[in-house]
Design a protein that fits this description.
The protein is mainly α and 113 residues long. It has a single domain (2-111), classed as Orthogonal Bundle (Cytochrome Bc1 Complex, Chain D, domain 2), CATH 1.10.760.10. 56% of the residues lie in helices and 7% in strands. The protein is built from six helices and two strands, in the order αααααββα. Strands 1-2 form a two-stranded antiparallel ribbon. Strand 1 (80-83) and strand 2 (89-92) form a beta hairpin. The longest helix has 19 residues, at 2-20.
Length: 113
């Protein structure tokens, strides 16, 4: 009898966890390769701020926001100005790929930090 009650609770909790975080099905090595190829690590690190915020800080900023993927996609695919950690502004580099799967993989990796 306990299993009959417990199963729906576990299913509900699992669904809530999946809905609240980005999909974990990404290729970390491929995402890092894209980031490296595009000099993302020149301004960003995974766990500390450099010229730009850390990827962890970026992930936290967009956590739970329904438009996170589209906003992050715009950040890396469209030319725009960004405010740097020291208060100055600079033009953010546009990544060199137009492959939607490669972009999504990079965004999922960033959001998972």
């Amino acid at each position: 009898m306990k299993q009959a009650v417990l199963a729906p609770v576990v299913l509900l909790l699992s669904a809530a966890l999946l809905a609240s975080s980005p999909a974990r099905a990404f290729d970390q090595d491929a995402a890092k390769a894209v980031a490296k190829r595009n000099d993302c690590f020149k301004c960003h690190a995974i766990d500390k701020s450099k010229k730009g915020p850390s990827f962890q800080k970026i992930a936290e900023k967009y956590k739970g926001k329904p438009d996170a993927e589209s906003k992050l996609s715009d950040q890396i695919t469209k030319l725009h100005m960004v405010k740097l950690e020291d208060g100055t502004a600079a033009e953010h580099k546009v990544i060199d790929t137009k492959d939607p799967q490669e972009i999504k993989n990079l965004l999922d990796w960033i959001r998972a930090q």
